[in-house]
Amino acid sequence: MAVDVAIIASTSPDFPLTLRCSSWDFPCSQLWAIGNLGILKNRLLGFFCTTRCPGNVIVHTYDLARAMRDSGIPVISGFHSPMEKECLDILLRGTQPLVICPARSIERMRLPAAWRTPLAEARLLILSPFPAHQQRPTTALAEQRNRFVAMLADTIFVAHAGAGSRIEGLCSEIIAQSKRVYTLDLPENAQLVWDGIRAQTVHGLIERFLNHHRPTA
Questions:
Q1: Which residues pair with 181 in a beta bridge?
Q2: What's this model's pTM, rounded to 2 decimal places?
């Protein structure tokens, strides 16, 4: 499927203000985009989960993803880890705006078939800060991408992050930026709560997300 890739310079009115004004060390002079840039006008919920995720967390995260889909909450993520990919499959069956941020350039990117309908319906944006020569995801690019997602998100949800993991380290950076960070209130997430992340039930999270993330585009 042929798609148009837009290049957004930092001087463009479409360039996210949060990237211009951020105090994070993330130099970004332009972006590459496929899809509806108007989605960035929403208050986006950032979603993260480490590669290894306990079974109890998986079950509750499925419930949360279905509730977010049914509630129309706009979500941004790299959707790269197994749990993130599973939740993307759930969210794509909804109608809410989504932003997918691959850890690589999106020039000459082959779009999965499941992305084509939401793209045509203008409820999907694929966004990358990486130039054409960075065609393959790497650990370093994934770390940069996760920071990029966190910068664009208004609120963060972390399904799980193992002790000492890169996602746990990112959480410390996010908290230092005074952003809201939430996780599921489960024993497996006790370390995240100890780190200063707010824990809630699935119902409690949906209430908070709905109050803060009603879609506008």
A1: 156
A2: 0.94
At position 187, the amino acid (one-letter code) is P
CA 68 to chain CA centroid, Å, is: 13
Question: pLDDT (tens digit, 9 = 90+) per residue, 81-117?
Answer: 999 999 999 999 999 999 999 999 999 888 899 999 9
| Polymer length in residues for the chain | 217
- Expressed in angstroms, the distance from the first to the final Cα of the chain is 25
Q: Kindly list the distances between the CA atom of residue 151 and the CA atoms of 43, 46, 160, in Å, as whole numbers in the listed order.
A: 12, 9, 19
Q: Phi/psi of residue 25, each to 5°?
A: -80, 85
- Measured over the CA atoms of residue 189, residue 190, residue 195 and residue 198, the dihedral's sign is positive
3-state secondary structure string across the chain: CCCCCEEEECCCCCCCHHHHHCCCCCCCCEEEEEECHHHHHCCCEEEECCCCCCHHHHHHHHHHHHHHHHHCCCEEECCCCHHHHHHHHHHCCCCCCEEECCCCCCCCCCCCHHHHHHHHCCCEEEEECCCCCCCCCCHHHHHHHHHHHHHHCCEEEECCCCCCCHHHHHHHHHHHCCCEEEEECCHHHHHHHHCCCEEECHHHHHHHHHHHCCCCC
Query: In this structure, are strands 124-128 and 30-35 parallel, antiparallel, or unpaired?
Result: antiparallel
